[in-house]
Amino acid sequence: MQKIFSWGGGKILELELPDWRIWIPELVDQFTLNQERAGKSHKIGGRWENLYIDISVVPAARIPIRIARDFGKELLDISSVILYEPLANTLDQKPPFWFNYAKPGESTGLHDHSELSALSGVIYLSAKPSSGNLYFHKDGEVDLEIMPSIGKLVLFEPWMRHGVRENLSDQNRLSMAFNLFPFPLPIMNL
Prior knowledge:
Layout: E1 2-7, E2 10-16, H1 20-34, E3 39-40, E4 43-44, E5 47-48, E6 51-52, H2 62-76, E7 97-102, E8 108-111, E9 119-126, E10 134-136, E11 144-146, E12 152-156, E13 162-164, E14 173-180
C-alpha cells in the first residue's frame, strides 16, 4: 500500500513499511523497557506529549528512520540526512525523534515541526483503527485524515499543520515521530 497526496500546497506519503513484523516488536520492547528513562517535552491534557529516549537504548528506531529517508528521496524527491542526536548549535537540545504514547481518550493538538528540517514522519507501533486519525489542517480546506495501523509510515513536509484525533479505542496508541534534515545541515548563529 502506497499513496502520495498533494494537499494544502505540500506532499504527504502514506505507506506500509516492508518487514515491519520483524522489527516493530523489538522496537516496542526497547521502548517499554526504557520509557521510564525518557526525557519529556511538555504536558498537554495531563499527559507528556513527547518522550525522548537515547538511540543507544532503542537502536531499532534506526530502521524506520532509514527507510523513511530512502522513500522520501525516491518518492517525494526530498533529500535528507538522519540525525540521532540533537542538531548542533541550536537551542533545542532534544533528539530529532520521539515517541508518543496516547491512552484512550487522549489526543494531540494541532502543530507543525522543526523549521530547520526537510521532512517529518510518523510510524505507528501499536494502534487500532479507532485510536485516533492523523489529520492535516489548513484554513479554507477540508482536513485530510489518515487512519493509523501498525507498520504504517506517513511522511510529510515539516511546515504542514497536523494533529491526532482522540483515541477512541480501548488500547493505548504508540507511535514514533521524527524529523530528517537537509544536507548540508543548517547552522544557526547563536
